[in-house]
Amino acid sequence: MSAPLIVLGAGPAGLAAAEVASASGQPVLLIDENSAPGGQIWRGGPQRWRDERAGRLWDALRSRPHVTLLAGARVVAPAGPRALLLETVDGALTQPWEKVIVCSGARELLLPFPGWTLPGVTGAGGLQALIKGGMPVAGKRVVVAGTGPLLLAVAATVREYGGEVVALLEHRASGDLARFAARLALSHRGKLLQSLQLAARLRGVPYLRGAGLLAAEGSGRVERVLLRHQGRDKAIDCDFLACGFGLTPSLELAALFGCAVGQGRVAVDGAQRSSVQGVWAAGESTGIGGVDKALAEGRIAGLDAAGAAPDPRDLGARATAHAFGALLAQAFAPLPSLRTMCSGATIVCRCEDVVAADLEPHTGWRSAKLQTRAGMGPCQGRVCGAACGFLYGWEAPGLRQPVFPASAATLALPQTQGVDTVARAHPASPEQQAS
Ligand SMILES: Cc1cc2nc3c(=O)[nH]c(=O)nc-3n(C[C@H](O)[C@H](O)[C@H](O)COP(=O)(O)OP(=O)(O)OC[C@H]3O[C@@H](n4cnc5c(N)ncnc54)[C@H](O)[C@@H]3O)c2cc1C
């Protein structure tokens, strides 16, 4: 048997890459830190999926004995040349690699405002993930705020699970949204249809366009949201505030391999090859564009890694998805006016409790880190790095190994284990593991 192709991330990009690569008999080891495959959009595992594309991919993968899913395993650092260090609930593992496809997805851009650290205030996608993970919201009052189409998807999830969306606050004005819809109607009709279907599921929800978030307030947890709309200040009582200002590619895994990054995304060529030989990247880590982009790029990377030519249909789908991604980026780039949400007393680095007034005198990450400890807590700047990029134009702080927090026991693991150990530690089929 040839060495397995390692696919990092079992979201749409990783599942698509694993499926096409394994179709020719290539052994594949699919690794994800979540306990079930699916990534962000198909979170919750196969039993909850409604998108038939997810079901088809999963049915194909679980029917192939040369495909192994290692779920609940986070890649944290290199373990010597051409080996990875993984942390699982059962302990640490090392995994040698020859060919890797990085499908690490994206995370939310979280922007600071007064009260954003109160319990009950979450990222928009974060609240959706909590709900899909089983957190009850039935009967809870939820405000969804920020900008972009993800807000609609999140509000629809809240409603579906019995929550009351008391307001949907979109920072962009009605005119911007109308122009975006007109562009969708011209070249991305399927996406327009999806938006209209989501909007229909939100009938009756107060949808305030051009709304500015001022603060979250409450004693011990969020109790109300203060906002400005049409020149008037208002307060809306709520149990949760879910905020989304866009997504940003997750670059840690690509950094672990030393892949070149440009414009905040992993740089790839037409075959999804990164700058490092033997490493491909696909999905949101190479730029935000949604599930269709992730699927097309995953298939292109998987075929190339297995030594096969790309399918022209995937190349076409990728081009369309890239155009959609560019349209999204243009229509929903966070407006400079969002900077005014953050006052001097607002916490920016929530790990180290550093407020904006302490950061403002600095000209970049280096001096800010040295003198305030911003970006030096457990998240290592994953949250405040992007926020400071938006607020002050600072380039995100460089990543250090381990790229994710790891226990001392993991870091001390002798570098002797490999794929056999992985297989022995997790002998279950992908289907058994997912259930
Ligand atoms: C919070 C959130 C919610 C979203 N909700 C929606 C939605 O409702 N609808 C929609 O259309 N789009 C949504 N998106 C956009 C979403 O990113 C894409 O639609 C799609 O999921 C992208 O697929 P992907 O395979 O590129 O990445 P993802 O689906 O994000 O998959 C990446 C996978 O990599 C894994 N991973 C990352 N780092 C490691 C590591 N170190 N070790 C092991 N595993 C790792 C993650 O656990 C994840 O499963 C959401 C994005 C975010 C961030």
Automatic annotation (TrEMBL):
SUPFAM superfamilies: FAD/NAD(P)-binding domain (SSF51905). Keywords: Oxidoreductase. Residues 5-298 form the FAD/NAD(P)-binding domain. InterPro entries: BFD-like_2Fe2S-bd_dom_sf, FAD/NAD-bd_sf, FAD/NAD-binding_dom, Metab_Enz_Cyan_OpOx_G3PDH, Opine_Oxase_asu/HCN_bsu. This is FAD-dependent oxidoreductase. It comes from Massilia antarctica.
